[in-house]
Write a structure and sequence with these properties.
The protein has 375 residues and is an alpha/beta fold. It has helices at 17-20, 36-67, 70-79, 82-98, 106-112, 142-154, 165-172, 211-225, 252-263, 288-298, 319-328, 352-371, and strands at 117-122, 157-160, 178-181, 186-189, 202-204, 232-235, 240-243, 269-274, 277-282, 307-313, 332-336, 347-349. Bound molecules: magnesium ion. It is an enzyme of class 3 (hydrolase).
Length: 375
């Protein structure tokens, strides 16, 4: 049903700070006395290798930032010759065949869900809210909030985001949902929701020992990135987001160099790319896909074949969740994107307004199913 066999593997850069920064040798200052020319040469060699390591790390990430920017591809296409545009249009059409619109295939999708319990997982930024220059102003509309509320009345529904959980709740403001903040490293299963019998709210925070480290890194990065116009840091409790949406491209290298200078001291942290954001997080094996599995377990659906998770997200970090669905062989992954992208999702929606339309159609389908006695 989910045409998983034709999904293109993801292209997330396999670069981590830990891998790049394994030998974080510091150039001692002041240089040690004595030792003669050979000691000085050894120190110089170490220093150079550190600089080279930093440079290759910066170059790799600079390339990643450019290639993950759809605007780059768009500008390149418009500046290119017509045959290239035609070729891109053909590639776009081929991509849509492999990843059809979840709206145009809605009836077909719903037939496949017959008799199954849908569990909804929704990313926040770029999925429920528009992507905006100021991450603190990424508000969802009242209409979207009402749609999510209605969906949560029909199906267990969770929000899974890179934001810290408290900020996420401030944006969404719905108590009937489950919240997984910090890329799933801060999960709250609230008591008293329609779908859980839990007598008390349960918190799951697999990276709690990293809290002091994340605080230090946030502080150090604040200092280092302050002089870079447009750079914005966000402390998301178990991770730090370095937003570069408003940083002029000519300053991307400087920004990366500053990030490198801080992170080379913290091999237990890694970076993952997002939409005009670098996400700095603990190197533990826990991501949005793990959060999806944890929430399914918590809701008592771990081994049920009659459960159909639906995950909607727009970012590279959502690919971990799409991959879990793909590996399970059950579930519907929906990528929110205006442009073709390599993805583990099976369907796509163009933008948050289409997500809202999809959610409302789901609610209507549920209502009609109940009226027809199909549920
Ligand atoms: Mg997002």
């Amino acid at each position: 049903m989910t045409n998983q066999n034709v999904v293109v593997p993801e292209a997330t850069p396999a670069i981590t700070v830990a891998a790049a920064a394994k030998p974080p040798v510091l150039f001692p200052y002041p240089p040690p006395r004595g030792g003669g020319a050979s000691a000085a040469a050894a120190i110089r060699k170490k220093h150079l290798s550190q600089v080279e390591l930093g440079e290759s790390w910066t170059n790799a990430w600079l390339e990643s930032m450019k290639t993950s920017s759809p605007i780059h591809a768009k500008v390149a296409a418009s500046a290119a010759a017509v045959p290239i545009i035609e070729r891109e249009q053909n590639e776009h059409s081929a991509w849509i065949v492999r990843h059809p619109s979840a709206l145009s295939k809605f009836e077909q999708l719903m037939k496949a869900t017959k008799g199954k319990q849908i569990v909804m997982f929704l990313d926040y930024d770029g999925t429920l809210s528009p992507i905006v220059d100021d991450p603190d102003s990424a508000f969802m509309s009242d209409a979207m909030r009402a749609a999510v509320k209605e969906v949560a009345g029909c199906f267990p529904t969770a929000i899974v985001s890179g934001r810290c959980r408290s900020k996420l709740f401030d944006f969404v403001k719905l108590t009937e949902l489950y919240y997984a903040g910090s890329h799933g490293m801060d999960i709250e299963v609230r008591k008293g929701t329609k779908y859980t019998k839990k007598k008390k709210t349960v918190l799951f925070q697999p990276a709690s020992e990293f809290l002091p480290m994340i605080k230090k890194v946030h502080k150090a990065l604040s200092k280092k990135t302050k002089p870079i116009p447009g750079a914005k840091l966000e402390n998301n409790k178990f991770c730090v987001s370095v937003h570069f949406r408003c940083v002029d491209e000519k300053n991307w290298r400087v920004l990366l160099e500053q990030v490198w200078l801080v992170l080379k001291e913290y091999p237990m942290l890694r970076i993952t790319p997002g939409r005009k954001v670098l996400e700095i997080r603990p190197i533990i094996k826990w991501d949005k896909g793990s959060a999806l599995q944890f929430l399914l377990d918590s809701l008592g659906f771990a081994d049920s074949k009659n459960v159909l998770p639906v995950y909607i997200g727009d970012d590279l970090t959502d690919e971990d969740a799409f991959k879990v669905l793909r590996d399970r062989g059950r579930g519907i992954g929906i990528l929110v994107s205006e442009f073709p992208k390599e993805t583990n999702a099976s369907y796509f929606l163009r933008r948050p307004s289409e997500v809202m339309e999809f959610l409302l159609r789901l609610v209507e389908w549920k209502r009609l199913s109940l009226e027809d006695g199909l549920e």
